[in-house]
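User: Sequence in, structure out. Go.
Assistant: Echoing your sequence, followed by the structure tokens.
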Amino acid sequence: MIDTRRLRTLRAVADHGTVTAAAAALHLTPSAVSQQLVALEHEVGHRLFNRDGRGVHLTAVGKIMLGHANEVLAQLERAEADVAAYTTGEAGEVTVACFATAISAVLSPAIAALRTTAPGLRVRVRDAEGDHSLAMLLDAEADLAVTVEYRGAPDAADRRISRRPLYAEPFDLVLPHDHPLAGSATLVSLASETWIGPYPGNPVHDVIAFACQQAGFTPNLVHCSDDFRAVVALVGAGAGVALVPRLALRDMVLPGVAVRHTPGPERRVFAAVRRGSDAHPLLRPLLSALRAAAESLGTSADLQG
């Protein structure tokens, strides 16, 4: 009989690539994780990982077991959802990992609405960029993630998660108000400028870099901040130009800058839960409230700041 706890360990090691990182995600010691892997290999009767320096890689049998692990763990999520539904699930706590702009745009309005529609539901918020929030979801540190499409993200076919599209958000050019192109800038016209933007690794950094590459240049990213208020402040100080998600500019005081709506990239925002848990009675009202809040934003063309 295969222990399902060891299947969780298998998935965590596959996701994180090292025993040490998986142990941190599972709140275990590396030796405990190693022991669980050895025990699972004995249960299966085959080697599941090849050790390579500090990292580990799935064997062919390991990949087969990982596929089954995803199915089994999803079924357990469904079982928990069914039991919770049977016992009404009208009260409880849900942890949401969400990036800052979406906290303001959709999560906060959803929480406000839930105070009336689901007063027994408590939402605990964790501010996390999109690439971190999905890891938190898969490591069971969060019950729901509000995140974005980014390079390397699990795609729609990933059998570990269920996705619910929320909204598509355009990016706007932000320039110093006295810039010669303040009234007519296009992305390609700013190819030689100094750029301000998020650090590499932030999903927005990838969107901006790809958009500039599509326009035929690599941006000269001199100043880095993951805080869009700081980015806009630096633009206002004349330090450079930036591409900023439109909702991040909404309600922001914009002294000394000009904002240009221009055809360009979008970031697609979605809610994700672990596969099998989307019917959970604590997650259903939250997903509905998030969808309603997103619909109130309008389409990407209507997000006018």
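User: And one key feature?
Assistant: The chain has a mean pLDDT of 88.
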